[in-house]
Amino acid sequence: MTKAASPRLAAAESIAAVLERWVNLSEAEDEAAPDTGTADPRDSAFARHLAYGVLRWLGALEWLAGELLDRPLKTRDRDIHRLILIGLFELWKGGAGEHAAVNETAECARMAGKPWAVGVVNAVLRRFQRERDELLKRLDECIERFAHPDWLVEHIRADWPEDWQQILQANNRQAGLWLRANRARSSAMQLEKALIEAGFEAHRHPYAPDAVEVRPAAQVAQLPGFTEGLWSVQDPAAQLAAAWLDPQPGQRLLDACAAPGGKTCHLLESAPGARVTALDRSQARLARLRENVDRLGLAGPDRLTVIAGDGLHPDAWWNGVPFDRILLDAPCSATGVIRRHPEIKWLRSPEQVEEAVALQAGLLRSLWPLLKAGGILVYATCSVLGDENSEQISRFLQVHGDARPEPREVPYGQPSGAGRQILPGEADMDGFFNARLRKLA
To answer: How many structural domains is the chain composed of?
Structure first.
């Protein structure tokens, strides 16, 4: 693919990759990075800002474009339509100068080989400037103001009738950059101090004891201590899973669906005397897990066993020795992390949610026999959908009489069936569900 020489064209290519080839934004960014020899980091950051912003507000931007265009553009001119969305985002939410947003976005049509479209883009964006207040007033009366697909709005509204608008609004706010201090080498207090001394703002989290937020967000190479293995990037809600599992020295732990290893590493950091088995189907993702373990200084055959295997078929890899603790961080719709990955809204479908629910049920059913009597399994997802969370656990409990829920009294989240749900944005956390089940003797 020809790399874009303009950050706006790069953003348009990233958006196209997501919406037409169904790849995630990180993959799309790699493809669409500006090809200018050594790309200016500022251009790359601006392209990222535009791509994420358009996908975050896509539903609302499409509504605005529909109101402003005299007639829809032809399918072959989807690239021009994407430029219009980029320009509208800049004028509405992007914080850029209006002159640049209009003129430079319009000129991108010429750079894309369609000089006839310069006037079209220019006319649409200038019309938005003139009619902005009226258009946004009408948008506020439409469901499109939430910028989520209809099916997802209805699903969240049905599951969370008191909180659905709060959830959708939180999904459209950009998440902060949270780090997890490596207890084996540092502490949250030391990390906070190092970041402040390096010129950043930093503060610890009220509920996740290892979590520190850094502002402004920066690339990991610009932050002190990454190469030395003093911290990892991880949202506070994800960090709480280790406390739910409560691993103890000498115990055998299974981290199912472990890659790329954030929770595996946190377990190793939190319980130095425990032995962890990290399981995942993907060899490539397990390679990333090993890299993270090595960087953090947590490697060692007496502490960690890495297995490429399928949780649905434990007979192919399990040695028959039961585990004291199992963490099932189950594959899910990821509807709790939309604020970090806005493309999720447009890449998911009801059918995919149904597939995830079936897979989760299969994993619970297959892994439960691997837990010793008296042991604990923590079921976790980064979803806000009841089918994947409270209802999933309810169905499991109905057919497994040897499972007993053990709710935790914690100052975050809210009770949700046998588990606890953190909604997106609470204490600046991602949406996350945890349920803790003990196996009866």
So the answer is: 3
Of 98, 124, 146, which residue is a domain's last? 146
Task: State pTM to two decimals.
Answer: 0.94
Q: What is the pLDDT of residue 344?
A: 97
Provide the residue range defining the domain that includes 227: 177-233
Distance, CA of 166 to CA of 143 (rounded, Å): 14
Which tokens sit at 169?
Answer: 């609004």
The single-letter DSSP state of residue 439 is E
Judge residue 168's burial from the number of C-beta atoms within 10 Å of its C-beta, 0-12 exposed, 13-18 middle, 19 or more buried. buried
- For residue 212, the surrounding DSSP H or E stretch is strand 211-215
272 in the same domain as 217? no
Residue 160 lies in a domain: no
DSSP 187-209: -HHHHHHHHHHTT-EEEE-SS-T
Has 382 been annotated as catalytic?
yes
Domain at 372, CATH number:
3.40.50.150
Amino acid identity at 13: E
Secondary structure letter of residue 221 according to DSSP: G
Residue 151 falls within a domain, yes or no? no
Average pLDDT, stretch 164-180? 97
Q: Is 11 exposed, middle or buried (0-12, 13-18, 19+ CB in 10 A)?
A: buried
Q: Find all residues with CB under 8 Å of 182, minimum gap 6, and list them.
A: 229, 230, 231, 232, 265, 269, 296, 297
Q: Are strands 252-256 and 275-280 parallel, antiparallel or unpaired?
A: parallel
Report the alpha-carbon angle 381-382-388, nearest 5.
50
pLDDT for 39 equals 65
Q: How would you classify the pairing of strands 252-256 and 323-329? A: parallel
Q: Which two structure tokens, joined as six digits, stand for 188? A: 């949250």
User: Could you tell me if 334 and 402 lie in one domain?
Assistant: yes
Quick one: how many helices (H) and strands (E) in the chain? 16, 13
d(CA 255, CA 125): 51
The one-letter amino acid at 75 = T
The 8-class DSSP code of residue 422 comes to E
Cis peptide preceding 115, ω within 30 of 0: no
Angle at 205 between CA 199 and CA 210, to 5 degrees: 85
- 76 with 130, same domain? yes
Whether residue 4 has pLDDT greater than 90: no
**Residue 440 DSSP one-character state:** -
DSSP 8-state secondary structure symbol assigned to residue 324: E
Mean pLDDT of the chain: 94
Which of 108, 257, 265, 382 is catalytic? The answer is 382
